[in-house]
Every structure is written in structure tokens, then in C-alpha cells.
Amino acid sequence: MSRRSQFVPWVTAGRVTERQSNADDVVKATGWVFNNETGNELTLEQFVTTGDQEVPAYLNVFGLRDPANDTKTFVEIGCGIGRMTCALTREFGTVVACDLDPGFLQQCHETVARFGKPDRLQTLHVVDGNSLDLRANTADVAFSYITLQHCEPGDALDLSAEAVRVVKPGGKVVLNYRSKSRADTIILPLSTIMRSLFKLPGVGGFLSRQRVFARLGWQANRLQPDEIIGPLSPLLRDVEVWRNPKSRTSGYKASIREFEGINKNHYWIVATAR
Ligand SMILES: C[S@@+](CC[C@H](N)C(=O)[O-])C[C@H]1O[C@@H](n2cnc3c(N)ncnc32)[C@H](O)[C@@H]1O
After folding, report:
1. Residue 99 near ligand 1, beta carbon < 6 Å
2. In what order do the strands lie in the sheet with 121-125?
3. Predicted pLDDT of residue 33
4. Sign of CA dihedral 127, 131, 135, 141
5. Gyration radius from the chain CA atoms
6. Of residues 219 and 67, which shows the higher confidence score?
7. Is the pLDDT of residue 32 over 60?
């Protein structure tokens, strides 16, 4: 795998993950990596419960509920250790869980075996961080949550295009990004410095356990809806930008939709593939 700096914090977190003997220990040691909570009392079950609450909310709000879902294929880009994947396998006939880090994918299998439907799970290693080794027009939904903000801008744009490529005509693309804020003038330069520190021998493992340093190292872009939708617009219809009612993010010829459950620093692009 290429050693681009944006991969380093995730691959380091993946190595920390691999050193734990089971997924409960992963959550205790690195649970904050995925849901920003800390504490030795945190269990894998509690962690998955957060996904069990979010998944139905987003499926309902984005109009993805369908009695035929158990015959459909859902691609999840950036699955981590399977926090949302469990609930997704209970809903969709096939879930292709994709991640940059093979350690997370291995733990994702364990998590889904305990709390989801493992016979519906396939995993895919995103080796280069920007392409999905999947055939075009094969998925019903391509989805990504709290992942594209962590990719270099070019990778986030490429993965967004990959989501559109793998979805069948009429299928849905449902992608989450982080909006710009004033704090970014400090956060983004600090995150570049942090990623350089992650590369120093022996330092990365320590940093990946410190919530504030790890979170800084992950922040990689603040793409705006126009930048994403513009190049993809010939391939999409019914483009919506979903935001928190307190957010002002707006989108390129897209309908603005609001849902209080969306983090006020996030937005979603929800569209139908042509
Ligand atoms: C914050 S976690 C979110 C996991 C999951 N979506 C959730 O909500 O629990 C971000 C995930 O994105 C993965 N990731 C980061 N960059 C990626 C890339 N370029 N391609 C694929 N996965 C990536 C990380 O390895 C990590 O598992």
C-alpha cells in the first residue's frame, strides 16, 4: 500500500486494533477512534448499539426503506470495525463493507458474526484509498459515513465517483462529508503537522491512543457540495444536500433538505444514479 500521509493515522489505528485479542478489547482500547467515546466500561455491544440507532434513522430519512431490501446490495465505504455494518446486514441481502485498513475489516467480520448477519457480509480492502474493486452498476446503494472527510481531497472525490460508478441506474448514492467551519483555519494546518508526527517511529502508536491527536490527524478535507456534485452531476438526478437545520451548507443545483439528527458540522449528498 502507498504510504500517503493521510493513510498513516488509520493504518496505525488498524495496527493498534490488530494487537487486541478480541473486538471488545478493540472498543475499550480504541472505541473512541470510531464513535468519540472513551471508557474502559465500553463494550462492543454498546458500540454496535450506536450504529443500530443511527442506521434505521438514516434509512428512514433518506428514503432507503424498502421491503425488497433483503434482495439488494449495499456498499458501505469506510466500515471501520462494523459499528453500522451489523444493522446494515439485518436490512440488506448483501453488504459489501469496504475499508482502507485490513485490521478493521477482520474485526468487522467478528462484529457482524456477533451482532449482525454474517452470511450477508462481504468485505473489500480499499488498497489504494481511492478505488473500489467492484464491477460497475452492481450495487443498489453506495453509502459512506464519517469517512470521506478523512481522505485527501483527491481520494474523497475519487471515492465519491466510485460510489456513483458501482451503483445501478436508479440506485442511491448516500455520502457524508464535513462542512467548512471557522475553526478549520487552525484545525487543518494542525492536522498536517500531526500526520507528520504519526510517521515518526514509535510515536504513531502513542498518538493514535490520544483522542485529540488522533482526531486532528484524521481531518483531511472540507470539500463543499459544489466540488463533489459538479463533476458527477451528469451521472446523477434528484440530487439533495441534507444538513442540520442550524447549518448553512448549500449545494450545487441541489434541493436542500434538513434533519435534526445530522451533526451540524456534517452534510450528506443523497442522489439517484442515472
Ligand atoms: C471514523 S471511521 C467511521 C467508521 C464507520 N463508518 C462508522 O461510522 O462507525 C472512518 C473509517 O474510514 C476508513 N478510511 C479512511 N480513509 C479511507 C479511504 N481512503 N478509503 C477507505 N476507507 C477509509 C478508516 O480506516 C476508518 O475505518
Report:
1. yes
2. 121-125, 94-99, 73-77, 139-144, 167-178, 266-273, 236-243, 255-258
3. 53
4. positive
5. 18
6. 67
7. no
By CB atoms closer than 10 A (0-12, 13-18, 19+), residue 5 is middle
E strands, 110-181, are 121-125, 139-144, 167-178
Smallest CA separation from ligand 1 atom 4, residue: 80
Tell me the pLDDT of the chain averaged across its residues.
Answer: 89
Which residues are 74's β-sheet partners? 95, 141
Rounded Cα distance, 11 and 254, in Å: 35
Cβ neighbors of 64 (< 8 A, separation 6 or more) are 58, 141, 172, 174
- On whether the CB atoms of residues 10 and 34 are closer than 8 A, the answer is no
pLDDT at 205: 75
Cβ neighbours of 122 (radius 10 Å): 12
The model's pLDDT over 87-113, given as tens digits with 9 standing for 90+, comes to: 999 999 999 999 999 999 999 999 999
Length of the chain: 274
Q: Could you tell me which residues come within 8 angstroms of residue 97 by beta carbon, excluding any fewer than 6 positions away?
A: 76, 79, 82, 85, 105, 108, 112, 121, 122, 123, 124
Say if pTM beats, i.e. exceeds, 0.85: yes
Q: What separation in angstroms does the CA of 5 have from each of 103, 160, 201, 217, 233?
A: 18, 20, 14, 9, 30
Q: Note the helical H segments in the chain.
A: 8-19, 23-35, 44-61, 85-91, 102-115, 153-166, 184-198, 203-209, 211-218, 225-232
Of the residues 150, 159, 223, which should be mutated to test ligand 1's pocket, given the most ligand atoms within 8 Å of the CB? 150
Nearest CA to ligand 1 atom 26: 80
Quickly count: other Cβ atoms within 10 Å of residue 136's Cβ.
Answer: 11
